[in-house]
From TrEMBL:
InterPro entries listed in its UniProt record: GH, GH_1_N_CS, Glyco_hydro_1
Phylogenetic classification of the source organism: Bacteria, Bacillati, Bacillota, Clostridia, Peptostreptococcales
GO molecular function list: beta-glucosidase activity
Pfam families documented for this protein: Glyco_hydro_1 (PF00232)
Protein name, UniProt field: 6-phospho-beta-glucosidase
Family: Belongs to the glycosyl hydrolase 1 family.
Amino acid sequence: MSFPKNFYWGGATAANQCEGAYNVDGRGLAKTDVTTAGTATKPRGITYRLPSGETGIAPMFTPYPKDAKGVVLDEHYYPNHNAIDFYHHYKEDIALFAEMGFKIFRMSISWSRIFPNGIEDKPNQKGIEFYRNIFKELKKYNIEPLVTISHYDTPLYLEEELGGWKNRQLISLFDRYTEVLFNEFKGLVKYWLTFNEINSLLMFKDFMPNMSSEDIAKNYQSLHNQLVASARAVKRAHSIDPQYQVGCMMAGACSYPLTCNPADVLRNQKKMQDNFYYCGDVMVRGEYPVFAKRLWEEDNVKLECTEEDIKNLKEGKVDFFTFSYYSTTCTSADESIAKDGLGNFSLGSKNPYIEYSEWGWGMDPIGLRYYLNEIYNRYEIPVMVVENGLGAIDELTEDKKVHDPYRVEYLREHIKAMEGALEDGVDLIAYTPWGCIDLISASTGEMKKRYGFIYVDLDNEGNGTMKRYKKDSFDWYKKVIATNGADLD
Ligand code: BG6
């Protein structure tokens, strides 16, 4: 058994983590532009100014003071401002992706490049032009774009002046944004994803155990508004171009019971429902699952959900299912057991049977086969793994080589797991490992947490030539693609 003939091998990026050019050609600000760098143990900071003129910095994910506005301050370094300058290097980078044999490239559109504040009547033509050029460049090499419409970069204006996604007005602003994209890029794009890791809004409850009940309720409402906006986008895409395929994108929140104690098993079942299936069910089946009621009661949430919303959700079911997969965690009903197992937006107990990366994320290739089966047997629509990879410290040797056997090992085992899932009958159609070219880490803002097949000469403080170098994994992945996954050595 091997990968299907037309399997989409590729790689994935996101605008704010690679484009740079944060204030070029009319682009407006996003939260990431006022976010400093952190480390595995020190959170990134958001810099702000109060009406009094006083400035400050608040840890990422905690609300900054009321009335404060996010600002860029001279004394700080903001890694996303220049990132790896994909804005000016895209031709060179796409040529390297083509050399590896990519069939698909996942990227995102920066909303504030198209509508700088999110509220303008007319889109920014220079932003549209930039993405059209990228799509044309990809077409030259027969690389299919897979485009995320919103990847953690809502225009800052919308967050600050309108209160972000908890405000229903964003639904209609997103309508306008997606209408522009679907019309402008007709014939150039086939596959779209609406919101990156949409379920992360609920995963925050585990990830940030001290969240206030007010913030939790706010997240439920923001998520509901995004789910409605997403469903409306699916319907709109199909009406603009019946060729369009629109998928959901979820953070792969896979967890296991820590023991076979039935209390742990039940607790874990709930965790999977709350963190993953809550969103998946709405997006694939078009309505909230039965357990949503239990969840709203537990969290004392009164969701504002209109008849029209219910209709929208029903009419905007996604065509395919995608998710990121980095790690798994374990769940215990015993609150005294340490939550020391980290992962992507997840917190759980450590699993003694798996290994952990330098950033403490659990590595679990077998879990990917398990999870693919769970997802496909529940939803029965085509599946893509659109993020996966190992964030590691790489060394550029004097002769400009990067020897990264650890990355090859990680990816190889995950590809084997996907092969297993194909044997199980899962309709897996694409694999786009994360950060196919090194880029800025979303959680820490570091450059040294690298995922790529292509090394970018840039350090944590923004020093470097931005030159691109092929790592050993580049040649390995090229061979994997050329043999359609048959040669993984
Ligand atoms: C996912 C995001 O959460 O994980 C990406 O969709 C992110 O944007 C990726 O970069 C890896 O996380 P990190 O923190 O290592 O960059």
